Amino acid sequence: MNKIAIFLAEGFEEIEALTVADICRRCGLDVSLVSVMENSLVKGSHNIAVQADICFSQADFGSYDMLVLPGGMPGTKNLEAHGELMEQVDAFYAGGKYIAAICAAPSIFGHRGIVKGRKACCFPGFESQMEGAEVTERPVEISDHVITSRGMGTAMDFALAIAGVFCGGERAQEMAETVVYRK
């Protein structure tokens, strides 16, 4: 079974993290909500407290097939400030394993040189931080093993794209129909 880690930092965008967790779990994927804070209860950007499944120190990175970075502020800044997480993002990228980011979080990929020469998307206003990318306004961009998305309004597209990577496009489409999602 494919395993996905979604990282929660104080100020994360709740819909972006939880939509991915929900859709991927409905598709039968093993999803861990991972706190990068000192405890497992993490407050999102709209003061909604979410109980993470584990804390960062408990994560077995060798078992994950994908790392997901939700956006939100100051969540994105808090993720980027977590040096050990950034080491894992770099290692996954270098190893050809999937990494994904939505909203402001693709700017982290821009700062790390990950989107250079790739199509990518991000929250409006962050385009200048997407160093070397061909920035689009599409809801989701998949470039090899790097997935980016624009924001809360594209969270369902993002979640379905991630599910599609591991379960196939047909299963993702079935899930979209099951939850009555229409583009």
Keyword list:
single chain; 183 residues; alpha/beta; seven-stranded mixed sheet; two-stranded antiparallel ribbon; 6 helices; 11 strands; 22% strand; globular
Could you describe the 3D structure shown?
With 183 residues, the protein is α/β, with parallel strands linked by helices. 33% of the residues lie in helices and 22% in strands. The protein is built from six helices and eleven strands. Strands 5-2-1-6-7-11-10 form a seven-stranded mixed beta sheet. Strand 3 and strand 4 (49-51) form a beta hairpin. Helix 1 runs parallel beside helix 5 (155-167) and helix 5 (155-167) packs across helix 6. The longest helix is centred in the first third of the chain and has 13 residues, at 14-26. The chain starts with a strand and ends in a 5-residue tail after the last helix. The relative contact order is 0.17.
Q: Report the β-strand fraction as a percent range.
A: 15-25%
What percent of the residues sit in helical stretches (DSSP H or I)?
A: 25-40%
The low-confidence runs, each spanning 5 or more residues with pLDDT under 50, are none
Order of helices and strands: EHEEEEEHHEHEEEEHH
Instruction: Tell me the number of helical segments per DSSP (H or I, 4 or more residues long).
Output: 6
The shape is globular
Please tell me how large the radius of gyration is: 15 Å
Separation of termini? Answer: 29 Å
Strand runs, count: 11
Mean pLDDT: 97
Structural class: alpha/beta
